[in-house]
Amino acid sequence: MQNKAKIKQLKQNIITNADQCVRCAKCLPYCPTYVISENEAESARGRIALLKAFALEQTDLSGKSIDYLDHCLTCRACEAVCPAEVKYGTLIDQGRELIHHYPSNSVHQKIPHLLNKLILSKTSRSFWRQVIRFYQRSGLSWLVNKTHLLNLSPIRTYTKLIKPIPAPIAWQNVYMPKGKAQGKVALFLGCISDFIDQQTLHAGIVLLNHLGYGVFVPPQQTCCGALHQHAGDKSQANLLQQQNQEIFSNTMVEAIVTTASGCSITLQEQVRLPVFDTAVFFAMNYPIKTSPLPTCNKKVLLHLPCTMRYVMRQQPALIELLKQIPGLQLLFLESELCCGAAGMQMLSFPEQANKLAARIIAEIQLKQPDLILTFNIGCELHLMNHLKNRKINIQIQHPSIFLANLLKLT
Questions:
Q1: Beta strands, E only, 220-295
Q2: What's the pTM?
Q3: Which among 2, 124, 305, 385 counts the fewest CB atoms within 10 Å?
Q4: Please, are residues 106 and 365 in contact by the beta-carbon 8 Å criterion?
């Protein structure tokens, strides 16, 4: 009975949110899946109509209908330009949660199980980190690439996406500030970042310590739940979010800092504390007037993930700081479309993801930057893989690593 009531409420919520859409079509040129397909069903407007029809029991979801919903990248570009202020991000999550209660061929029904097995547990993450590190350092990766072994296997695709993993970092509970104390923040590790991008997390810590901020790393923290939520597993997402809310609400800090903009959004919606990217927080508090930054004679391209561009919108502080670096030429992409990474989408729908990445890579080739900065590990891995495939030798890194290197803190 409880499940039936939940499904009924979900359907009503979808209908209510979908009724806000006035079908003006202003979202179409901003929807990446519509731009590359020119198919109305692959647009935000088309998906809203489909979800409403399903909630009203006017259609069932199978075959192509499920594909159209699965293809959505949840970039929320449509939401940012919608004159009716339709909460599309909420709507697509509600739709996938509803689908989660029905048997279907949706790839999103398989994702939560995969996440729980591979990355939710710290023990599991540690085990797989060691396995991948051995694979990278032992010469097996060279052998696989040289002999084209596993060419038809998804394993090769996954391993190619992971950058070289250094020795793991055993996190301290507290990192004390350097010099005069300015405040305290808490660092959210994130499951993927803690799994394969500890260098960026460490760079964020040294940057904030340099500013005079103590950095707390609560050991009981867990996954933010974003990937579970976007896959429709709302019950698991709620459990993870409640655990983080309890932990971070008791840390007595002024803000939470992260290195993945996707995690930032979820935390911002669940924890009653300001949430900032580590590089953004550094930029907001760096005393540029009294401590000018060192010269950097490079062309640096700042890539803005959809989560930062359309939801967090914190990039102006970092942009202003980067402009203050002597010799640095700051570049931006003209295309505002999603790169295709979108959490697990680059693995679930590689053809779609590759088409979107190709548009950005073409622009990168024209601009010829020395370095690319991005706020999201998924975007970094996805774009780096495409650069490598085209033998384009341009490094991609988080702004925190760039700033820590610039200040010679690492």
A1: 255-258, 275-277
A2: 0.91
A3: 2
A4: no
Element (H, E) at 216: strand 213-216
DSSP helix/strand/coil, 278: helix
Q: How far apart are CA 141 and CA 146, in angstroms?
A: 8
Q: Running DSSP on this structure, what letter comes out for residue 335?
A: -
Write the pLDDT tens digit of every residue in 221-231.
998 988 888 88
Phi and psi angles of residue 372, each rounded to the nearest 5 degrees, phi first = -120, 135
What's CA 141's distance to the chain center, in Å? 26
DSSP string, 112-126: HHHHHHHTSSHHHHH
How far lies 32's CA from each of 40, 67, 121, 341, in Å? 12, 15, 33, 12
**Cα–Cα distance measured from residue 29 to residue 57, given in angstroms and rounded to the nearest whole number:** 30
- The amino acid sitting at 55 is A
Tokens, residue 326: 């002597």
Distance between alpha carbon 102 and the CA centroid of its chain, in Å?
Answer: 27
The DSSP secondary structure of 21-73, one letter per residue, reads -----TTGGG-HHHHHH--GGGSHHHHHHHHHHHHTTSS---THHHHHHHT--
* Residue 153 structure tokens: 């296997």
Q: Mind listing the pLDDT tens digit for each residue in 329-379?
A: 999 999 889 999 998 888 889 999 999 999 999 999 999 999 999 999 999
